[in-house]
Amino acid sequence: MRLRSIVSEAVRNISAGTARAAWFFLIVLITGLLLGGYEATSIVRLEQEAVTRIAADADTKALVGAGVDGVACDALTQVDNGPTLSGAARATDSITAASTPGMELPAYEVTPGFIPLLVSGGEDAASSANDSGSQASSTSGTNGTVDTSGIWVSTDVSRDFGLVKGSVMQTNHGDMTVAGVYSWPNDGRDSRFAYAAIVPVSASSGTFTECWAKQWPVTEQTDELLRSTAIVTASDGNTAVAQVNKSFDSRYDAASSYAHRMSAWLPYVALGVGIIVGVISVRRRRLEYAGALHIGQSKAAQMLGMHIETLIWSGLASLACVALLCAYCWRMSVDGWLEIFLAACRVPAMTFAGVTVATFLAGICVRESQLLRFFKSR
């Protein structure tokens, strides 16, 4: 048979309903959407959990109870595969505004690297900065240049004292210019900075009492790097590395959660469904195939026609499934939608592979000599 005749016959079988293409199309499509959608939803949920932890500073650790070298602490971001943000802090004399002489405002001296940690620590950091004027510096991912020309205050302090970026606050330590406003939600993180004034100082200006580092994913290297900033003293036995936001499980492992997700085995289920569908699509027409061989159709032409039919309904179903999964991943993913899409697409790909391979193997098994047996068992 010529190729045109084989293709024409395959198309007629589908349009006439002989191949039951619509039913098999729906089975492949529903399998891909249900299993692939569950895989995509599972990964998106893990991604959102990670984003929530990062926004709440659950990925930030602090070395406390030790003398800290401020220069070494700020330099942790220069380590390969090290923290993205790091900085040192220490408590200092409280500040009293001239307008409220009976009210002391807790104050902390920090290195320049600590300010991006504060700004990135609030979900409304950007909006808070916009409300108080434009933010003075970029703080996305590194200890880049920040405005250290004045103090930084939390949003609660900004609201109570009517302060915005550029405001001058008269205090018992003289006039202080507000360099910026940061957000510090009450979500379980260290509450000291929820209502405080932050005074930037040089990293080399003495010893600090704690060093913070933000790194994702958190590894044991983070703890070791933090301990390396401690100045050796007799009280080192009291030092500890703690999670800044203790309301989250400190044993959380993002990589392990992804590797052991329940949906990881769904592509194999999809493969099994595809194999079953492929076998059924051939088995239900085995009498027809054996009869065609009996009247002279070549096995090669039969196998080609069989696969053309299969490629049409299973291929279209798989493409439709891939398109819908792509739209879902692009819409729901917070970041890195392509990686989620590629993981979810393994399901329709495995279903398609199962159908194709099963059709080939089941088709090979159909022989002309089985015609009488198929006829009797029909």
UniProtKB/TrEMBL annotation:
Keywords: Membrane, Transmembrane, Transmembrane helix. The chain crosses the membrane at residues 21-38, 265-282, 311-334, 340-366. Residues 125-149 are annotated as: Disordered. Residues 125-144 have a biased composition (Low complexity). The keyword Transmembrane applies. The keyword Chaperone does not apply. It comes from the Bacteria. This is ABC transporter, ATP-binding protein.
